[in-house]
Amino acid sequence: MLIKRSEGKAARQRLSSTYQGLSAGGMDRRSFLRQAGLGGAGLAALGSFGLTTARPAAAGPTNFSQPIQRIKNICTHCSVGCTVVAEVQNGVWVGQEPAFESPINRGTHCAKGASVRELVHGDRRLKYPMKLVDGQWQRVSWEQAIEEIGDKLLEIRQKSGPDSVYWLGSAKFSNEGAYLMRKFAAFWGSNTIDHQARICHSTTVAGVSNVMGYGAQTNSYNDTRNARTMIIMGGNPAEAHPISMQHMLAGKEQNRANVIVIDPRFTRTAAHATEYVRIRPGTDIPIIWGMLWHIFENGWEDKEFIAQRVFGMDDVRKEVAKWNPREVERVTGVPEAQLKKVAQIFATQKPATLIWCMGATQKTVGTANVRAFTILLLATGNMGRPGTGANIYRGHTNVQGATDFGLDVTTLPAYYGLDEAAWRHWCRVWDVPYEWMVQRFASKALMETPGIPTTRWFDAVLLPKDQLSQPDTVKAFIAIGHGGNTVSRMPEAIKGMDALELLVVADPHPTNLSSMSNRRDNTYLLPISTQFECDGSRTASNRSLQWGSKIVDPIFECKNDYELLYLLARKFGFAQEMFKSIEVKGTQPVAESITREFNRGAISTGYSGQSPERLKLHMQRQEDFDLVTLRGRPGSPVEGEVYGLPWPCWGTPEMKHPGTHILYNTNLHVKEGGGCFRARWGVEREGKTLLAERSYSKGSELTDGYPEFTVAVLKRLGWYDELTAQEKEIIARVGGDNPDRVSWSTDLSFGIIRVALEHGCQPSGNGKARANAWNLPDPVPVHREPIYTPRTDLIADYPAIDDRRTFRLPHLAKSVQARSYSLATSFPIVLTSGRLVEYEGGGEETRSNRWLAELQQDMFVEINPADAEARGIKPGQMVWVDGVENSAKVRVKALVTDRVAKGVAFMPFHFGGWYQGEDRRGYYPPGTDPIVLGESVNTVTTYGYDPVTAMQETKVTLCQIRGA
Amino acid sequence: MARMKFLCDSDRCIECNACVTACKNENEVPWGINRRRVVTINDGKAGERSISMACMHCTDAPCAAVCPVSCFYTTADAIVLHDKDLCIGCGYCFYACPFGAPQYPKVGNFGGRGKMDKCTYCAGGPQQDNTAAEYAQYGANRIAEGKLPLCAEMCSTRSLMAGDGDIIASIYKERVQKRGYGSGAWGWRTAYRETVDV
Amino acid sequence: MHDGNENKVAERRGFLKTLGLAGGAAAAAAAPAAAQAQAPRPRKETEVEKVAARYRETDHVKAFYRTNRY
């Protein structure tokens, strides 16, 4: 409640008559809000913190006598991609208006989106560069900061090699920023370059792409309007992606659709479901296999789809056979009747879609989970058509784009990987000699080896050198747009921070990287602008690109991401090579020229057709796109194009490919956005074909499966001479001694793509999806109990994977899981974590926004009434939540609620600034501390990583709760 | 003549609080004053429902009936506004209001109440339209600009509607007919002495 | 109109807002801006002007209605 509790009650008594059948009562999480709950010395000091910098932040009422400029950008919070309309007067952002014309949000916002103007007001933003000198924050100039940071990094490079610097980028970057930073890391000579995708959907990207070819949302938020059945499993879009609910609820209403929420927690999304299935945390695979058990048992599967388009479903049948209803109930707690009903609805009331988020992915079995989810969709034929698909809701505004552009330790931009062919491709695009690039790295071997994932950066600082597969441990950590409270095992992350030789935070806010360590020197904060102060494109979760125009110049002494990277490149002496084909005005790289460069190289993902001009036209003509199909209206300048040219947008901008709204849709011509599963894994395995059988996209001249297009394939088909002389010449240059091996994805002439499209063929081939991903651990997903599980009786049957090495580091699993036997009795409560609507990510930015901070003033833990009563815990009181590692504990408020089951507790992950009971407000530079601070849940989250991507386990661990 | 109303479709409200921050953003409402808020009942249980609440701009507004200084007035658009120059902060309207709409900034150390503040339907107050004076006392005047309250314009799921009462009632009816359920136009009987019949 | 006065109001508003930024407690105590400001005032609206209809079904309003429909 926003008003005082007593007032709320008084009002509510008389109000009760107007509730019309909705019973009143119950505590909600706002019940412990204080009207003006701030205080303390830290805050009092703020009033005197002068704004001494060049450009004061200003905002205020619209002056109607002055001209108003209307500028469009994209909300910088979640991945839905809501258009923000800013009204600007004299360079000041004075008002925010609804963008009714946006087909994605139609003028609407959530609490975060409706408050973004405050970000550029920026009372609590970093105002100028600062450095820590003997424990005190001092203001320094940009020049001094870049010099000192650069010298130190070069010294570390000299002494320990380029892999001893950790480069951490951001899902808040524009595509241009993400691409530029990946390129920057390459020029620095390291693959240790990562971003938030590691901790949100890395498992989705790896898992789903290993089944179908691409690891992204197959349909769109808008397309859920077509669904007749939706399962939301491991996601809470009502809080995490509120605008998606506009489309989902419209679909629910118009189609009388089934909305089924499967989750350990009765979420705000579940409140709008037609069916809620409560599961034990960490049992996603048994639920999916349990559903498939009923589906196979009753013949509800789509036999034709499986026969034509799926490889290895029989291997799945064998595993599913083990998951009879009794075993499913024993492991998950879900009764047979309910799961059978859900299975039947999903398989028979089509089209059906499966929507997931971090509840599925942030698991030690994350990659396996999402593969199981995808297999359920494939088995029921719910793929490649409107209303179906894997609707994977990504997290941050541009986490999709930043992933695509390779802020990822495993790949160069556009998923080319790290092998020599990939490096040679990008070196050609960048116009630098491959040999020059090799000498930037410690070795060719390390150049082709994935770097260290962000979930484990501190292990790479703290572990003995001989346990790391690289020359030395990590000595410097450079976080550009990334919080510090988002990785699990924070007590160890803090030790890692303390041990670093250099820590640099480049961000609009100091982030709690500035406040959580005990460092006294060699720590720098660089003020970076938000994307509202910057031009560039961003890719929403549905793969649509949207161009955001700079609303105001960077406030205070902030610089944008591009300029920061330019300044560092210049300091390191490779700016000339790196910016060879990128226009730089002064020290400011021009966004459009970066877009054009990646258009030339990011061929494999289909990021080639989205020129800045086409993207800007879409932003201008938003009203011309259909709400449901996202197609441009006939007669408009964007006729037939899909809003935002969702990738793959094949070929050059001049080829005018419309973009792909729905992946793998064989009912459309490839030139109209149709497609098939990619032929990524060869043509045959164990005597069975991996190519599609009698299935092909509309209008294809090849009426069966076919491999990826290469020069050799073109020659065999007799289509080679349809290439122009100029295309052949470019291909010859690319191919060198063996031009036959040049493929559609390395052909810089785009000729192979052009010819394939002319014949109605998908350049990446027409393959089968793989229900058996033989190259991954657990090729067919199997259930494995969480590392820390209260159900020790199940460990013998469903153990964690064996200990191994991944990503240059030791990766423990089974040996840690053995601790559960001794811990489960004294830590009987399963702890899970998730989002609140008001805050985002680590939350520093949103907790600094006074309009949002007012709505959510306290970190809390949700605890079931039975667990609270057994512990004598009263609603609203302070409690300690004890974790199972490092004797860690957090002090938070108790929210006693049935939202969580008995034996389960939930904490939001957006808080920081408190550590194990200590308020660390004083450690922030004065005037930059967020309004609301609180304990980070990750202080008590624990060990556990996915074997494929090193995703952290944040959804299932153990804890104990006691009064404080 | 069009009669302005609010209609919150509680089957759509997801408690995202966009209406609350949109209001703050548009009117620069300070910390501690909430012209609009979202109330959730049965929180965390089956039957959980949320409703966005603010001044409903009642017909024969009870606040106006009890005001000792007669600071309230109803416009031809049926928007209930008040004159802060007349308000004495007595708090009677708070007790009269069935929706808990009136808000009071705390003044001084003894719990004194400042002048009442409430939702103006983004229609300003008795200062001239869209002047700095009007903005400073009452906030934005979107109605005079040919717009509607920003809370409704930005509502994430199109739960909260504002505008011509007949039009938003017809939109609501269409929804209920389409989807086959509805909890009624929440608060309408109290505020407007009518309901939306479907 | 009342330019001088209006500028003053704007300045005052800006001043109050800086106070508001200093944190909740201070903000609530100062009770700035829309809630409470004692603005120097230009001529107020007449009784007739006060209650005059202002609502118009503009394109903006129509767009709002449209996005509320299916």
From TrEMBL, chain A:
Which molecular-function annotations from GO does this UniProt entry contain?
4 iron, 4 sulfur cluster binding; electron transfer activity; molybdenum ion binding; molybdopterin cofactor binding; oxidoreductase activity
UniProt-annotated location(s) = Cell envelope
Which metal ions or organic cofactors does this protein require, according to UniProt?
Answer: Mo-bis(molybdopterin guanine dinucleotide); [4Fe-4S] cluster
Gene3D superfamilies this protein is in? 2.40.40.20, 3.40.50.740, ADC-like domains (2.20.25.90), Dimethylsulfoxide Reductase, domain 2 (3.40.228.10)
Q: Which stretches are transmembrane?
A: none
Q: Which Pfam families match?
A: Molybdop_Fe4S4, Molybdopterin, Molydop_binding
4Fe-4S Mo/W bis-MGD-type domain mapped to chain residues? 68-124
Primary location group: other
By sequence similarity, the record places it as follows:
Belongs to the prokaryotic molybdopterin-containing oxidoreductase family.
Q: What is this protein called?
A: Formate dehydrogenase
To which species is this protein native?
Teichococcus aestuarii
Q: What is the lineage of its organism?
A: Bacteria, Pseudomonadati, Pseudomonadota, Alphaproteobacteria, Acetobacterales
UniProtKB/TrEMBL annotation, chain B:
Keywords recorded for this protein, A-Z? 4Fe-4S, Iron, Iron-sulfur, Metal-binding
* GO terms assigned for molecular function: 4 iron, 4 sulfur cluster binding; metal ion binding
Among Gene3D superfamilies, the record links this protein to: 3.30.70.20
Its domain of life reads: Bacteria
Q: Which region is the signal sequence?
A: none
Query: Which SUPFAM superfamilies is this protein grouped with?
Result: 4Fe-4S ferredoxins
UniProt-listed PROSITE patterns: 4FE4S_FER_1 (PS00198), 4FE4S_FER_2 (PS51379)
- Limits of the 4Fe-4S ferredoxin-type domain: 4-34, 78-107
Q: Which PANTHER family match?
A: PROTEIN NRFC, PROTEIN NRFC HOMOLOG
| Name listed for the protein in its UniProt record | Formate dehydrogenase
From TrEMBL, chain C:
| Superkingdom of the organism of origin | Bacteria
Q: Which PROSITE patterns match?
A: TAT (PS51318)
Q: Which InterPro entries match?
A: Formate_DH_TAT-contain, TAT_signal, TAT_signal_bac_arc
Name of the protein in question: Formate dehydrogenase
Q: Taxonomic lineage of this organism? A: Bacteria, Pseudomonadati, Pseudomonadota, Alphaproteobacteria, Acetobacterales
